[in-house]
Specification:
This protein is α/β, with parallel strands linked by helices. It contains 13 helices and 15 strands. The strands form 4 sheets. The protein has an 8-stranded parallel β-barrel with strand order 6-7-8-9-10-11-12-13, surrounded by 7 helices. Strands 3-4-5 form a 3-stranded antiparallel β-sheet, with no helix packed on it. This is 4-hydroxy-tetrahydrodipicolinate synthase.
Length: about 375
């Protein structure tokens, strides 16, 4: 039996022979042994799924100029589906109070609890309704490079202005792997890299960011390590947003940060804008620090979810594993609102200390 071109003959026994590829699944056939080739990353093996229409493009410099970006909360209906009516109100409040961008489906927006269908739908909905008034930055990052590529292609296809990307968490990789992961998505459009070692378990070191900054699509870094790291970047021409609300005032005015990607701005967007735009204001910063401490008493987004329910702007519905703050902390929030001034907070209803029975916890959604 003649061998096919490019194939050798594999024998099971003398009575049976069949064509066998000389290279199969990445392995070379040398004599009778299989030898693994050296590992290699093939860049841009697939053609990019992208649109070149002008309407679907955003200049990276437009993203670099944003000062207040709100990591927007995702509210829910009693059955756990998105409450788009409440969501639209929240985004409109951000626009009215001067926020320049929103992160859709980030940690605060509970992207980690969404299916990718939900995630891309919410990005598309936000662009469709508000894309002309505020920059929409979709959290399309993942610890899987394959998923990050797919979600980012879809996010830009539905019109998001920029992508937010985290480094691979839990299944951590090397520094070279981090760089390769981010390079796999950077070519698609404006990108913010998010460094939050407290959640990922791995710091993105400056040498990785400096390498990635050679790509013109890198808008900047959301940095949670601290202000010394912020300063290191800003002194080297890398745009930075503080990822820590309690440090953002000093980041902006003492260390050169462009602004903040904020959780607190879900509650007091006007005051956060003032903090970023109107010069050094230690008095206002000190006034807001107790609220920021309250918000992060438990892991985000537990605090902001509890607060927005108490302000009456979202239903008291939680997707598990998140549960509301205990009654003592809910009473503390009522006091904080009165001290800062109800007029500075979102919504129009009186702040309430909700009872435990007022909350709905959803395990399947």
């Amino acid at each position: 039996m003649a061998a096919l071109k490019g194939y050798g003959l594999c024998s099971v026994d003398s009575a049976l022979q069949f064509p066998c590829p000389k290279r199969f699944n990445g392995y070379k056939r040398r004599s009778s042994k299989w030898v693994s080739p050296k590992a290699a990353v093939v860049p841009n093996f697939h053609l990019p799924m992208r649109s070149l229409e002008v309407k679907n493009r955003t200049n990276t410099d437009d993203i670099k100029a944003l000062r207040v970006i709100t990591a927007i909360k995702t509210p829910y209906l009693p059955d756990g589906r998105f409450d788009l009516e409440a969501y639209d109100d929240l985004v409109n409040i951000q626009i009215q109070n001067g926020a320049a961008g929103v992160i859709v489906g980030g940690t605060t927006g509970e992207g980690q609890l969404m299916s990718w269908d939900e995630h891309i739908m919410l990005i598309g909905h936000t662009v469709n309704c508000f894309g002309g008034s505020i920059k929409v930055i979709g959290n399309t990052g993942s610890n899987s490079t394959r998923e990050a590529i797919h979600a980012t292609e879809q996010g830009f296809a539905v019109g998001m202005h920029a992508a937010l990307h985290i480094n691979p968490y839990y299944g951590k990789t090397s520094i070279e792997g981090l760089i390769a992961h981010f390079q796999s998505v950077l070519h698609m459009g404006p990108t913010i890299i998010y460094n939050v070692p407290g959640r990922t378990g791995q710091d993105i070191p400056p040498r990785a960011i400096f390498k990635l900054s050679q790509n013109p699509n890198l808008a900047g870094v959301k940095e949670c390590v601290g202000n010394k790291r912020v300063e290191e970047y800003t002194e080297n021409g890398v745009v930075v947003w503080s990822g820590n609300d309690d440090e953002c005032h000093d980041s902006r005015w003492d260390y050169g940060a462009t602004g903040v990607i904020s959780v607190t701005s879900n509650l007091v967007p006007g005051l956060m804008r003032k903090l970023m735009f109107e010069g050094r204001n230690s008095s206002l910063n000190s006034k807001l620090l107790p609220l920021m401490a309250w918000l992060f008493h438990e892991p985000n987004p537990i605090g902001v979810n509890t607060a927005l329910a108490q302000l009456g702007v979202s239903r008291p519905v939680f997707r598990l594993p998140y549960v509301p703050l205990p009654l003592s902390k809910r009473l503390e929030f009522v006091k904080l609102v009165k001290e800062i001034g109800r007029e500075h907070f979102v919504g129009e209803k009186d702040v309430q200390a909700l009872d435990d029975d007022d909350f709905i916890l959803i395990a399947r959604y």
